[in-house]
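Exercise 7. Given the components listed, write out the predicted structure of the assembled complex. Treat all entries as one system.
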Amino acid sequence: MGLNIESSRFGQLQVDESQLLEFVSPVIGFENVTHYALFEHEPESPFFWLHAIEDKDLAFVITNPTDFGLSYAFEIPTEDAEKLGLEKVEDVLIYTLVTVPDDEPNKLTANLKAPIVINQQNKKAMQLVIPNDQYAIKQRLIPDELIQQQTTANV
Amino acid sequence: MLVLTRKIGQKLMLGDNIVITVVDARGDSIKIGIDAPKEVSIYREEIYLEIKAANQKAKEAPKPDTLKAVTAMLPNKTVNPNKSQ
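Answer.
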């Protein structure tokens, strides 16, 4: 079953029911939004969109930081696993919110401190806060060295 | 704001299903236990505010061209050495 959602960025968006997520614990600061659609930016792109159903202006770019070569692992507390109805670890999908500065897009960062955790079986999701200081809120995804290498290569 | 004094081991009820227990107090730190229904999210305030600000920033999603530029920059669409080598 398809669903039409209003989006100020994309206009009319058609999403499949399988792409809908229900947030059992909200994206912090956006407590009034509980349903989002998740879809890829482009085929093969590491970026995805998390688009609010209840707010046509609200959309986040998300990615899995391991696609950028970062190692990323954390424990999901039992209470949160219960909230998500998680039964096995294979059902977990992990994404992080991405911030891309329009003036310096290659300095994009991901919020590794507060990942989006999804149970792909029942489509329940939440923004989890990792309690220790292991991960940064603004983790650069592309290191400076790599940007410089690319600049050199383009000359 | 309601301000009240409690001793170690004493509890507070917030409504009828949130219980706050003063577990321990030493110097300027107190240890608090919280029992709340699982739909209630509990955060340390400073972290909550920091993440809220970061989410707000992330919400200013990039212009389509910006995202295109980043995607184009990624070798083989990804910089994961395991995938791109």
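Discussion: Chain B touches chain A through 34 residues (CB under 8 Å). The mean pLDDT of chain B is 85.
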